[in-house]
Amino acid sequence: MAEQVSRLGQWVIAGELRWRKLRQVRVVLTALRVIFPLVLIGTLADLVNRSWLTPTGYYYQTLHVTTWLLRRTRLQQGILLIQTGALGLAVLGVAFAVSYLLVAGVTRRTSDRLMGGGLAVLALEFLNVTPATLRAGRPLEWAAMNLGLPGLALGIVVGLLVGNLYRWGVRRWHHPSDALIRPLTLGTLGVLLTAFVSLLWLMRGPVDTTFGPAAWLRSTLTGASDWPALLGVSVLNGGVAWLGSLSPLPSTPQQAAMAAQNLATVLDTGSWHLPHPLTGQTILQAYANMGGPGMTLGLLLAIFCVTHNATQRHVGWLSVLPVLGNFNAPLLVGLPVVLSPVFLLPFLLAPAVCLSLSSLCLALHWVPASAYAFAVGTPGPLISYLGTGGAWSALGLAVVNLGLSTAIYYPFVKWAAMADRQLSEEATNDAMG
Amino acid sequence: MRWVKRYRGLGVILAVILLLSVPGLFWRSEQTRAARANYRSAMAPVILVPGSSATQNRFNQLVKELNTQTKTQHSLLRVEVKTNNQLVYSGAIRRGDRQPFIVIGFQNRADGLTNIRKQAAWFAVAFQALQKTYHFNHFSAMGHSNGGLVLTLFMENAMAKTGAHADRLMTIASPFNLEEADPKVDTPMFTQLVAGRQHLSKDLVVYSLAGSQSYTGDGIVPFDSVDRGKYIFQKQVKSFTQITVSGANANHANLPENQQIVRLIRQDLLD
Asked: Which Gene3D superfamilies does this UniProt record tie to the protein (chain B) (predicted)?
């Protein structure tokens, strides 16, 4: 039985299908699927490290981990190894996969495909060098795996640039005289070109590849203490995450100072009339970040409200634990939400609606503002309850926000599932025809 | 029961959220205590206590000297505690100054065991009043001569009640065994300080400075009496450092103006 779809839904599905059929997009989405296991393992390790093994973690504090866990430091070192390795490799992997798949579209030769992928990894590594150490006689500081999830967008961009260049080279040189001459020539030229471009980049130093985007985002949050500013930060953070730079909500010294003044008021005077009721901590963190940036806990719940979406549910099950600790990278990469037009609107809208409603409730003094520090890994709905020292009204508002965000995501999840089905049907028909 | 099958996944996730929330709900009652234990106010004053017979103006020159040597100018508040617990203030704490100097002096500033004990009690009165006004919960302190004894007695006997945390303590020529030069004799003051040492914070960083004008002391306090600080602080606080200063201005009265000591205060007490 055909499902009834609204006009908006039909328009969204058609747009999604057109988008996903673009070669470059198809390649990026396939590459994201390839690195999904690395992102999942790395994020799980990050969750365990920061919520179980670090003093600011939710389970560390609530389950008094230090009293019963032996060799915590050694365990933490092991977990950090997995986290850094998996997430670092994910960024290199996405650059490799994107470039490899682009080259694969124009040649069957494995040597060319591997050279295309390898060049993308090399270009990414060339960018990730400490420029100050680029001097003869000094050891080069070569940071191989430090990019982590915020560097995912950079990996995609480098993969696209290098892959398309190599692809262009292959198309210009159809029939090489020898199987190895083309990868040898293009590879050598590619190394020289990427080294030259990277050197120019490093000498100019326009953006630090590791901290640049994060620092830029943090600067927008500096002193944000009213609704429009917080809304701007939320939309900006969501937009950057949608583009593939996955990082938690930024924090700044000014935000930390405001949080400290709020806590001081509560502890010193016992009053919940805080000097800074609207901040990143009191609004974004407490009410608009359940499941991670984009209110992705709402997305997870919406996935399990929709039917006939086996792939989405599969990714949902795999991402349950990280998302319940507000680490949403696996869900964003697995579905994917990253670079998917169908999810862009709810991804920005859900936190915006939640923060607006919460700001209104705070302004009307229906709920107290959050003053206690947020423990990493706290289940989404509980963040505001613990932040307000146990105010049931705050928990109630969090549940309302969760319901709202689930409702906002629901139709889009349904339409994404329909687009998925349509694409797989078309693929099956193509294979048969 | 199609709807059960349809929403089974949703139910499981909601149940997991509830389950993971249980530790947080039980921990809630401990939260305020944990936050209070870890909380440090933005203001952390440096409290200065002069020795016997010196007034609350004793450190005016020292503060002026320190302010010429540091990037941030710190304000100075002086408090005199009257014998009837009344407080008389002079000077002021500048708004936004996170590390002001507060000098606490006493109307009865006479020497002697009984008076030092009284001064420690008066110090507690002033400390609580200042804490109430300026909302600080941690501080550093410097005591010259008997001022060091007053601070040590306060930290052992009265500080726990205030909920404050002492970060750093610097005693300058403090006679932990009073003026007793014989190393075999323990004065009641020393016995009392040793008996109360287990109440000293494990997070406290202590510096004990001694002046060496002659080879046995600073002209007033015997070196052995200052050295006795190790029996009070060592193996009890986070770290305990003893420093002996000689050369110009190494006699007991001039030690707070001694350039080496000014440098040590700037280096070890100020942020």
From this structure: alpha/beta hydrolase (3.40.50.1820)
Given a cut of 90, whether residue A196 has pLDDT beyond it is no
Task: Determine the 3-state secondary structure of A172 from DSSP.
Answer: helix
The reply to whether the predicted model has a pTM over 0.80 is: no
Q: Which of A264, A372, A379 minimises the CB distance to B31?
A: A372
B137 and B23 within one domain: no
B166: enclosing H helix or E strand = strand B165-172
Of B17, B24, B135, the CB nearest to A386: B24
Does position A1 have pLDDT exceeding 50, yes or no? no
Q: What is the CA radius of gyration of chain A?
A: 24
In this predicted model, what pLDDT tens digit does every residue of A321-349 receive, in sequence order?
999 999 999 999 999 999 999 999 999 99
Write out chain B residues lying below 8 Å of A380, CB-based.
17
For residue B11, the enclosing domain spans: 1-34
Question: Could you tell me if residue B39 is inside a domain?
Answer: no
Last residue within a domain, chosen from A174, A204, A234: A204
d(CA B236, CA A432): 81
CA dihedral A258, A372, A46, A295 (to 10 degrees): -80
Q: Is B96 on the interface with A (CB under 8 A)?
A: no
pLDDT tens for residues A246-259?
Answer: 877 767 777 887 88
pLDDT score at A151: 86
Question: Rounded CA gap, A64 and A5, in Å?
Answer: 51
Q: Under an 8 A CB cutoff, do B10 and A260 touch?
A: no
At B34 the pLDDT is 80
| Packing angle of the helix pair A310-324, A392-432 (nearest 10 deg) | 150
| Interface contact flag, A379 B41, Cβ < 8 Å | no
Pair (B22, B82) in one structural domain: no
Q: How far is residue A304's CA from residue A311's CA, in Å, rounded to a whole number?
A: 11
| Closest residue in chain A to residue B24, using alpha carbons only | A62
Q: Exposed/middle/buried for A316, CB within 10 Å: 0-12, 13-18, 19+?
A: buried
Q: ipTM of the predicted structure?
A: 0.87
